[in-house]
Amino acid sequence: MQPAPPVPPAPDDAATPAPTGPAAGRTRTGASRGGPGSTRRERRDRWEWRARVRADPKKHRVYRVVVACVGVFLILLGAATGWLPGPGGIPLVLAGLAVLASEFAWAHRLLKRARIAVRRFTHWAARQPLWLRLTGSGAAIACALGGAWLFLVVVGPPAVLPAEAVAFLGRIPGVDP
Question: How far apart are CA 149 and CA 9, in angstroms?
């Protein structure tokens, strides 16, 4: 296998013609303002305090550890509460991933993939007929109510609820207050 031929140097700015048309006066590109073409180091921080933290290596190391701990805590909390009825699991995991993505490139890429997957699913679901969307919504609601009922059957009503709520839940078949 032969090595790849050397890449010729990029032409200097003097050799390139000046732009004409509507974009002639613009000098900023997507990469220069922190857009999709820029690298992570080229992007400017939105908050001044974070730029000051990143300027000091010791503070930046401590900051990264704190961000990692908070992000992992949220992800573990999401995993721990995911089986409970109500919101908890997926939103907390995504919040933890967003916290990690503020400082770690791998988490930023993973969060971007998750956003793309959600967007694709949303567009797919919007193209489905109304009867299928209603059936899917009904099935999701039935699963949530079934999960809540199963939780109450196995664990029982939480002790923090008022006596009236416990008495109401005690009327549900299989739930012992």
Answer: 68
Give the Cα separation of 151 and 148 in Å (integer).
Answer: 5
Structure tokens at 13: 């700015």
pTM of the model: 0.53
Show me where the domains of the chain are located.
Answer: 42-127, 129-177
Amino acid at 6: P
174 sits in the region (left: phi over 0; alpha: psi -120 to 50; else beta) called: left
- Exposed/middle/buried for residue 77 (C-beta within 10 Å: 0-12, 13-18, 19+): middle
Structure token digits, residue 31: 């990469």
Walking along the chain (177 residues) 10 residues at a time, the average pLDDT comes out as: 55 49 47 48 67 85 92 90 75 90 90 91 92 93 88 84 86 83
Structure tokens at 38: 């820029």
Q: Is 177 exposed, middle or buried (0-12, 13-18, 19+ CB in 10 A)?
A: middle
Helix (H) or strand (E) holding 77, with range, is helix 57-81
HSE value, Cβ hemisphere, 13 Å, CA-based, for 126: 6
User: Quick one: tokens of 23?
Assistant: 């974009």
